[in-house]
Each structure stands twice: as C-alpha cells, then as structure tokens.
Recover the amino acids of this structure.
C-alpha cells in the first residue's frame, strides 16, 4: 500500500498545493485562469515557473484530453530540485481517479522519472503522446496530443533567459513559484521583465498570488492584471493579459 505524503516542500517551507484539493486548485487557478479550453490552438505553448510534482501539467493534459482536443503542446518549466519520483507517487496518489486512473498515473510517473533522472543544470526533455478518447459508436480516426516537455533544472531567471535567447514565446504562463516572501527569486523584477519578453501579445498568465509586489511587477512589464476570487479559503488570485507595452 502506498503511504500518502503531504504536498509540502521543506526547501521553501511551503505547500506545493492545498492538501486534498490539488487537482481542483490547479484546474481553477492555472487551467481556467489562463482560459485554456477556449484559447487552445494546434501549436500551443505554455511556460511554467515551479514544476514541483508536475501536477499542473498533468491536469492540463487530462482536461484537454477529456474535451477531445488534439494538436501539439510545447510545455517549458523549471525547478531547482524537483522531488524524487517515489515522493511524487505518494503526493499524487489521492488524485489517481481524477487524473485518469492507475494506468495514466503509472504512465505519468514513467515520464517524470525520465525527465528528472539527470541532475545537471539546463534543459531535460521528453516527448509525450496522449491519446484522445473517441466517443462510442462514432466513426472517427484515433487522434492524440503531441507534447514536447522540457524541464530546466536550475534558477527560474536562467530558464527565462534561455527562452528569450531561443526566441520562444508563450501563449500562457503558470506562475507557481511558491510564496513570494519565501521564494523571492521566482518573482524578481528582472525575471518578470524577461518573462514578458517571452510572451506573445495577447498571451495570458495566472497565479495563486495576489501580493501587491506581484501585481505591480506584472503591470510594470506590460501585463493587464485583474484580481479573481481565490481558490478555497484564499481571498484572491491574479490573471494577466500581455499587452506588449512597458518593457525597455
């Protein structure tokens, strides 16, 4: 029997997500916060600050699959020290049914193992193929979601700098880098400025944090920022739309 583990990161003395509500929180804050179901296009790009257990990615893929949406997804993320696969297995165990059942859970853990097996700084990547369910008695050709998943092991500032050099532009961002008071590097002015340069005009972002310095920093680099009701007991979260102004 797998012993469930609380989703807590001792490095930052902070939760990865709300205990017992991880799937619903990720769905509300990041998937719905970026309006992905209505905005997804065949070659969509998502950037993330704070990979952790990878729950945000797996929620994203499961939701798109359940809607029958196919195409390709380029997902770039960052973590200095992602948790070990056995820890991820324990943390995500309560969400097996929501994430598609034991077979999907096992497949995700295999991907996670491949992605995090090497610890050197820089990009580590795997390619995923996610089958799209076919409605019963419907004569359709099987389709799939092709996913290019790349994890930068190291500092978030170095990851966005690498993306800028590559000319990579996001359609949406998941800003999930722990509490700004506990992990200020993930919310620095310079990082946000570079992140804006790596965002398409009209691109979006979402974050659980509604801290004043976060909202101010995002506005200064060209994002229109709006507060939204937070998940669960949290009062507010933030959504942003990049308008392409405010950067030197």
């Amino acid at each position: 029997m797998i012993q469930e583990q609380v989703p807590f990161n001792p490095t930052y003395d902070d939760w990865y997500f709300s205990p017992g509500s991880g799937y619903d929180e990720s769905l509300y804050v990041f998937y719905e916060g970026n309006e992905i179901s209505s905005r997804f296009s065949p070659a969509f790009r998502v950037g993330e600050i704070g990979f952790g257990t990878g729950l945000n990615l797996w929620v994203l893929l499961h939701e798109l699959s359940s809607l029958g949406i196919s195409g390709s997804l380029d997902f770039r993320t960052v973590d200095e020290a992602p948790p070990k696969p056995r820890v991820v297995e324990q943390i995500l165990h309560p969400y097996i049914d929501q994430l598609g059942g034991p077979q999907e859970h096992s497949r995700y853990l295999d991907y996670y193992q491949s992605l995090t097996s090497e610890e050197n700084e820089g990009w580590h990547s795997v390619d995923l193929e996610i089958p799209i369910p076919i409605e019963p008695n419907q004569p359709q050709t099987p389709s799939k979601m092709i996913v290019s998943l790349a994890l930068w092991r190291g500092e978030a500032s170095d990851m966005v700098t690498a993306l800028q050099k590559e000319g990579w532009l996001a359609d949406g961002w998941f800003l999930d880098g722990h509490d700004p008071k506990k992990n200020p590097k993930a919310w620095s002015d310079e990082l946000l400025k570079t992140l804006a340069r790596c965002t398409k005009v009209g691109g979006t972002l979402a974050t659980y944090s509604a801290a004043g310095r976060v909202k101010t920093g995002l506005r200064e680099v060209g994002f229109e920022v709006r507060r939204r009701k937070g998940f669960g007991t949290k009062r507010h979260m933030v959504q942003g739309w990049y308008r392409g102004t405010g950067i030197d």
User: Anything to note?
Assistant: The beta strands are 8-9, 14-15, 43-49, 71-79, 122-132, 143-153, 170-175, 199-207, 223-229, 236-242.
